[in-house]
Amino acid sequence: MLDFPRWKVWAVWLTIAVCALLAVPTFLPANVKAGLPAWVTAPRINLGLDLAGGSYILLEADTNDVAAQRLETMRDTVQTEMRRGSPRVAIGDISVRDGRLSFMVRDVSQVDAARERLLPLTSGVGVTGQRDWNIEVRDSTRFVMTPTQAGIEQAIEQAMGDATEVVRRRIDELGTREPTIIRSGTNRIVVQVPGLSDPQQLKALLGRTARLEFKLVDVNATDPQALAKGQAPIGSQVLPYPSAGAPIAVKRSTIISGDQIADARQEYDPQTGAPMVAIRFDAQGGRRFAQVTQQNVGKPFAIVVDDQVISAPNINEQILGGSATISGGFTVESANELAIALRSGKLPVALRVVEERTVSAELGQDSIESGVLAGIVAAVALMVFMVVTYMRFGIYTSLSLLVNAVLIMGIMALFNATLTLPGIAGFVLTIGAAVDANVLINERIREELRRPRAAIQAVEFGYKEASTAIFDANITNVISAAIMFAFGSGPIRGFAVVLAIGIVTSVFTGVTFTRLLAADYLKRNRPKTLNL
Amino acid sequence: MRPLKLVPDHTNIAFLKYRVVAMALSGLLLVASIALCFVNGFNLGIDFVGGQMVRVSFQQPVELDTLRQQMQGFGIEDATIQTFGSDREVSIRTPLPDDTEAADAAATRLRNGIQQAYPTSQIGAVESVSGKVSAELFETGAIALALAMLAISLYIWFRFEWQFGVGALFALFHDVVLTLGFFALTQLEFDLNIVAAILTIIGYSLNDTIVVYDRIRENMRKHRRMETADLLDLSINETLSRTVVTSLSLGITLGILLLLGPDVIFGFTAAMLLGIVIGTFSSVYVSAAILLWLKLKPDSFLPKDVGPQGAERVRSKELP
Question: What are the residue boundaries of the Protein translocase subunit SecDF P1 domain, all occurrences included (chain A) (predicted)?
């Protein structure tokens, strides 16, 4: 039991040395770190937002919204598809209701032709190859298209993927450092921005869908009372127009959408000096814009963002060159925000902030300082207590506690784990577990000494007898750490990670490392009795 | 210099003689805790009920009543205002309107209002959790707690005997309920960190229970003819020194953390400290005493009265 082969001794010290080296970069000051190659500084413990300060935002998409939008899009596609090509298929009574799209083919003889045109609009999904829409014909002329579950899931998946990308671009535009943006579950996105202590701007930016549309103003709908009630002629809709103070009616069909924007910048109006947003269309958008403005000189058109009219200027002449400006009561900030949102693309689905946690850097700093101080004081008190209780073996225990701390930090650095406040608590707790393992062993040695047994034998039996209890006790902790990690969220996970690492290291230091020290002492000094 | 021995050698306290008293006390505490949980309820943090929390540090101590009135002036209704750590640190909790924009507006009103009334104050943290997320957090927390208890008991049943599994499960239940009772009594804020604390208490209490159980099992093999009660007493006495030293070590560590540590983990450390006291008590009285009532016999580790693994055991019984 106390015979250590040389390689084992080396392995133990090597493990400790490697972990110590891994732990070092975390504690280097920033200016030293800058001068070192990346592979040296790569392993480090990241500080959680609760310690370093920063914002955590959980965004959630309304998946019903995705399904609804998909139906709307399909309605438009079906309409265009039936009109296009010859012969034209006349359809009517098209409606979206109860999550289905239905329409009637006016001429019974065209039903087969209509079906032919619909099929390419749907496609297979996933491994099973199930279609994303079911098409039925009822009463020989009524088509009913029902989205399948697999199709909806795929659409949500895609929308979330795109949304995450847009979120990433928008946050990058803000110039914040090292943001983390990850998808979570089916319809959530986690955004973590270290150092950001006022996330208002970020939230405003992420809350915007930024769907830009240019639409013609319906000049016939002028009755303010009808507009106030939201009544508009067929083919038009009433939209709020905050800077004019009253809603306005615009044509439903969109002339140009935000997809055709190449760039958007915040600029100043050369005449009035007011902030505005200058946008540049891509080639196709530019051509279309030129064409539309040519056909509608003298008429007003509306610039609509997220179903809100920003401005409705008159078209004075054909606009060539593929650029346009949006002005209308902007501040520099709001113009800049709109420009960023437009430039980074529209969100395929609206996102809502469902959880936000922001910690200011000062508070984080305070917490970590008092955490570290308390940790050091607690560790010292514990060591004194151990030495007073177990003398020489108390020193071994104290050393093993120190080594334990180094090992935990080294392993956390190796995995680039994040240290949070509950993590610090977990750290302290694993020190507790390490103490218990040591105490169990030391008490067993005492018992054996009372029997009485010779020093070497007492130590040997002590380690052997205590090991089952240590094993069982630690397994139960591993079980609860694993469950905390699997089912817990946020802080609980941070705690579980440290606890799990700590259990492994505490067994190593408590059982192997102290045994090594004790064996060395016994071999060198051959004591007859132990002062324990 | 002699080492410090808190528990003298050859200590022999008849612990189980007082088991009826101890169990009565336990039962009383259990009933009281459950009653408190229902009567007082918990001071649930926004993690579990949703809402918004703003932590403000003021330069000077502030009157909570004044602050409460000012809140209403800002148009913030139903604010829960508490100090934590010192009387210059205040947390203001408000319900969160369902609508995102309204919620943002309310947060801005609160922030601007405070900044105007107390220009030197600092907003340390803002947290907001929507009702949906908080419900999920509550659910995952409860599931984690229940699963941990179950998994641990199962492990003990496998490693020891069914009586031990039942004893451990009951001890766990005891510790968790008493800790919950403590939170219902003190109205300390109950948030996600506390769930972690309770899980840790479970872990710790089991640590303790297992050390005692391990010794009981060992002694059962050694002293086959001993009366169960005496055997349990012997085992508890033999491990008493370890129990005292470990509990004291953890007590020292947590006590220091409670006094010097960051305010954010105050509730957490308080729960842990309490858990150690309850856990130590339960591993001596609850989990060991239950073994007696479950008719654990000194020869339990040799067979017969064990249901599930009977077959294997019967064979070993035949051995001399």
Answer: 162-218
Q: Are residues B64 and B112 in the same domain?
A: yes
Q: How far is B92 from chain A (nearest CA, A)?
A: 14
Query: Concatenated DSSP letters for A95-111?
Result: EEETTEEEEEESSGGGH
pLDDT band at residue B298 under the 50/70/90 scheme:
low
Q: Which residues of B touch A362 (CB under 8 A)?
A: 122, 124
The CA-based angle A329-A175-A341, given to 5 degrees, is: 40
Do B177 and B246 fall within a single domain?
yes
Please give the residue range of the domain that contains residue B232: 15-41+134-293
Q: Quick one: B36 and B55 in the same domain?
A: no
State the CATH number of the domain containing residue B102. Answer: 3.30.70.3400
From B70, B102, B129, the end of a domain falls on B129
In chain A, where the domains are located:
6-52+360-525, 69-146, 211-336
| Cβ pair A479:B4 closer than 8 A | no
Q: From A70, A92, A66, A68, select the one nearest A79 (Cα to Cα).
A: A92
Chain A residue at shortest CA distance from B209? A473
pLDDT for B149-162, tens place per residue?
A: 888 888 888 888 88
Q: pLDDT value at position B318?
A: 44
Cis omega (within 30 of 0) for bond into A240 = no
On whether any CB of chain B is under 8 Å from the CB of A200, the answer is: yes
Q: Which tokens sit at B133?
A: 């997320």
Q: How far is A240 from chain B (nearest CA, A)?
A: 17
Give ∠ CA A7-A12-A16 in degrees, rounded to 5.
140
CA pair distance A463, A432, nearest whole angstrom: 19
Smallest Cα distance from A113 to chain B, Å: 47
What ipTM goes with this model?
0.83
Q: Which of A41-45, A99-103, A215-219, A263-267 has the lowest mean pLDDT?
A: A41-45
- Check if CATH label 3.40.50.2300 holds for domain A6-52+360-525: no
State the CATH class of domain A211-336.
Answer: alpha beta
Of B136, B249, B264, the CB nearest to A435: B249
Interface contact flag, A371 B261, Cβ < 8 Å: yes
Got the DSSP string for B180-231?
A: HHHHHHH--EE-HHHHHHHHHHHHHHHHHHHHHHHHHHHHHHH-TTS-HHHH
**Are A374 and B125 an interchain contact pair (Cβ–Cβ within 8 Å)?**
no
Distance between CA atoms of residues A481 and A498, nearest Å = 9
Number of domains into which chain B is organized: 2
Mean pLDDT across B1-7: 80
The predicted-structure confidence for B27-66, as pLDDT tens digits, reads as follows 999 999 999 999 999 988 888 888 888 888 888 888 888 8
Whether residue B115 lies inside any domain: the answer is yes
Nearest to B126 among A356, A439, A477 (CB): A356
Domain-located, residue B225: yes
Q: Is the pTM of this model over 0.80?
A: no
| pLDDT given for residue B319 in this prediction | 44
The domain defined by A69-146 folds into Gyrase A; domain 2 (3.30.1360)
Q: Chain A to chain B, count of Cβ pairs less than 8 Å apart?
A: 227
Q: In the predicted model, is pLDDT for residue B208 greater than 90?
A: no
